[in-house]
Amino acid sequence: MNYPSRVHITEVGPRDGLQNEKTHVGVADKLGLIERLLQAGVRHFEATSFVSPKWVPQMADAAEVMAGLGGPNFAPLLDGATVSVLTPNMRGLEAALAAGAQEVVVFGAASEAFSQKNINCSIAESMAMFAPVVAAAHAAGVATRGAISCSVGCPYEGDVAPQKVGEVARMMQAMGVQRIAVADTIGVGTPRKVQAAMAAALAHYDVAHVAGHFHDTYGQALANTLAALQMGVSHFESSIAGLGGCPYAKGATGNVATEDVVYLLHGMGIDTGLALDGLVDAAAFIGKVLGRPPNSRVTVAMLNQRDKP
Ligand code: HMG
Ligand code: MG
After folding, report:
1. Ligand 1 pocket, residue 13 CB under 6 Å
2. Do 255 and 236 touch, CB atoms closer than 8 A?
3. Using one digit for the tens of pLDDT, what is the confidence trace for 28-64?
4. Atom 35 of ligand 1 has which residue's CA nearest to it?
5. Phi then psi for 77, rounded to 5 degrees?
6. Measured at the alpha carbon of residue 24, what is the angle toward residues 277 and 44, in degrees to the nearest 5?
7. What is the pTM (predicted TM-score) of this model?
8. CATH code linked to domain 8-307
9. Which ligand neighbours the alpha carbon of 244 most closely?
10. Cα dihedral angle (238, 71, 48, 95), rounded to 10 degrees?
């Protein structure tokens, strides 16, 4: 197999990971998590979302989180890092630009029903909403990414055809979105289905610009990561401590844990630039904040090792 020698990880824990938490996580704890992630070598992460606070209350403090990241103690840690945020519309983009975001993410879906539930509009309407966001971001010198949710399956529509993924990828490519993620939002995918969804996206984007974003609801995310690696995909989005879920994808559990992906990759001799021990520290930190153990086999194993006399 022709695996990449280096993989780029986008940490989505502070955003995808926390957005579904019912109890509000304070700004200081969000910043504490980001600080530890940066100390572990994270150089690309989703800090927050500039979305309607009525839709996702946990992200209502987006501007405060960004202000914290602009503070002097974060400057050395953020050197060489890209701070990414979600922006569904122009209102979100304007707030993101004012807050100093370096990259913005528009998030569409390959399923009509999910698009309606998540952003209250059809796929076509979402593309019309995103196009000016992408253009204005580029005009401001800010990078763009696009997420294609429900690329394999949808909580409302069931199986999603790869052709649907291809259509959204084509529209995102046409509006100038620089990178995309093929997302298995509800973690139902298995390797061949994920490879078919990836292939549909790769018809419109170079492999260097496509990421895998796998939730682990059915325990398939590492297998799907390997399947994508085998296609030459070298960008993955993952969440510290396996946090996460989407408020509009009932029952979907967390993203694949960053620690588990990194253990897999390092074990295969693939470089990530991340320090596993530091990731475990970050996972343990957020586990304490949330009052539950990290949802990562690697973190649990490594914490058990640390506890040994
Ligand atoms: P809407 O209700 O159709 O839009 O929501 P609206 O324009 O009528 O706005 C409703 C209210 O929100 C108004 O306030 C707006 O001002 C306000 P009111 O007048 O009622 O007081 N509003 C905003 N406030 C702050 N920032 C904004 C903003 N926009 C409007 N940007 C909308 C449409 C898109 C805004 C809404 O549906 C929304 O915010 N959805 C976000 C849902 C979300 O964040 N989902 C999770 C992220 S996606 C995900 O997790 C998947 C991913 O991980 C990949 C994967 O796994 O699949 C990326
Ligand atoms: Mg997600």
Report:
1. no
2. no
3. 999 999 999 999 999 999 999 999 999 999 999 999 9
4. 52
5. -70, -30
6. 40
7. 0.97
8. 3.20.20.70
9. 2
10. -140
Give the residue numbers annotated as catalytic, written as ranges: 246
Tens digit of each residue's pLDDT (9 = 90 or more) over 273-291: 999 999 999 999 999 999 9
The answer to whether the beta carbons of residues 271 and 5 sit under 8 Å apart is: yes
Residue 239: CB atoms within 10 Å: 32
Tell me the one-letter amino acid at 82.
T
